[in-house]
Amino acid sequence: MSFYGLQVHSQEVLKKDEAVKIAMENNFDIKIANSNLDIAKNNASIQNSKYLPSVSGTAGGTYNTTDGTITQKTGTEVDFINNETSGLNASIGLSYTVFDGFGRSNTYKKLQENYHISELQARQLVENTMLNIFNSYYEVARLTQDVNKQKQTVAISNIRLKRANYGIEYGQGSQLDVLNAEVDYNNDSISYLTNSQLLANEKRNLNLLLGRDITIDFTVDTTLNYATDLTLEKLVAQANENNVTLLQQELTLKNALYDVKSARAAAIPKLNVNAKYGWNENTLGATSFINKSASYGPTLGATLSWNLYDGGSTKIKKQNSKIAIDIQQTSLAKEKLNVQRNLNNAWTSYQNELFVKDAQKKNLETSQTNFNRSTEQYKLGQITNLDFRQAQLNLLKTQLVLNQAKYSAKLAELFLLQISGDLEKATF
Q1: Contacts by 342-349 with C-beta closer than 8 Å and gap 24+?
Q2: pTM, whole model, 2 decimals?
Q3: Is the separation of the CB atoms in 163 and 184 below 8 Å?
């Protein structure tokens, strides 16, 4: 079937859960976030904590040949030529920090918190990506319904144009009626084609967000389900526990506390131990009383170090780390208020969108009744073309406004759930 050159073929129905699944696997931003999370996981490993000992091995060799003169105690001089000496050595050593004033422990804990922060950052990116995807998904749904309504409008205008032409043939109309009907028909066709193009563009945009071939054509599920158990009190409580931005701020505060402890560790004595097993062999040449020497065996050692005074840098680190805690506590308090404000604003917006949606439903019922009556009166010649056209436009406008209101309310709901930290439980 075709309509003004637009071919309609069997299309894939892209369901909401399938869109989420495709995005989680293919979306480029989510892929990058997962890769960054892998890096953070590696950084949080105990292998990056200095808890494990270090082991090193060395090996070397020397060779030397010299010419010269030796003067003995008796005064006799002996010349030598090409006196060769050589040496070989090898060793393996182990070094371990037994105690460093708990600095290593606090650093490791901070690495763990950094990983959790990275998890929250990845979650935040996924949430934002999901909102973008469903903003596009619902826009495709809205435009799909708008195009269908406009197609119906074109069909009605086409019938009206034919009726006007029939009226001319049977002497019951005027040329003005035909011209008006033709202009309205053409305008409706233009609107239909324009919105069809917008629909095609938005489908390509959604394909891009899903990380797949942008030329894939599809239809979407236009049904909507709204949450029925949302209350502001529950959302506020949920946000205090699970808002992703608040959680990041809280972990950053914990890291600031670890920085204070790490700064204190600089003033505590440190104990290091080391062990080494080495082998040396030297050929001393003709000028030495000993031709060869060899030695091997273990070496053990321990070092206790204490930074008694470092010019005041440790003191400055302590002071700055305490100030950083105050700054982070202030940032956390500010963010809590910010979340409360955003949540209350989003709740008010959501309630308004629901009211508009319900009000537009009633308006549609009225417009539909008015259009049905106008259609009957128009067929009976009881109203003018202008009156009928006005009823037709009122119906179309109400249909389009209702479509916008339905999807705006759903997007407001998703945004509200994101702020509360409960987006993953949303019904899309």
Answers
A1: 342/419, 343/232, 343/235, 343/236, 343/239, 343/416, 343/419, 343/420, 344/232, 346/412, 346/415, 346/416, 346/419, 347/232, 347/235, 347/416, 349/412
A2: 0.84
A3: no
Assess contact for 296 and 280: CB atoms under 8 A.
yes
Contact 335, 246 (CB under 8 A): yes
Tokens of 13: 């129905």
| Cα–Cα nearest to 70, from 61, 62, 79 | 79
Please count the other Cβ atoms lying within 10 Å of the Cβ belonging to residue 373: 13
Distance between CA 68 and CA 85 in Å, rounded? 14
The proportion of the chain whose per-residue pLDDT surpasses 70, expressed as a percent, equals 96
**Residue 112 — very low, low, confident or very high, per pLDDT cuts 50/70/90?**
very high
Report the sign of the C-alpha dihedral through residues 21, 342, 410, 218, in that order: negative
Q: Is the alpha carbon torsion for 326, 330, 333, 339 positive or negative?
A: negative
- Is the separation of the CB atoms in 11 and 217 below 8 Å? yes
- Give 161's DSSP letter: H
**Each residue of 349-387: pLDDT tens digit?**
999 999 999 999 999 999 999 999 999 999 888 999 999
CB 134 within 8 A of CB 411: yes
pLDDT at 10 (0 to 100) = 57
User: Tell me: the pLDDT tens digits for 24-37?
Assistant: 999 999 999 999 99
Angle, CA of 394, 398 and 404, to the nearest 5°: 150
Nearest to 370 by CA among 345, 387, 351, 350: 387
- Tokens representing 202? 């938005």
Indicate if the pLDDT at residue 1 is higher than 50: no
Q: What angle do CA 77, 82, 83 make, to 5 degrees?
A: 70
φ, ψ of residue 6 to 5 degrees: the values are -90, 115
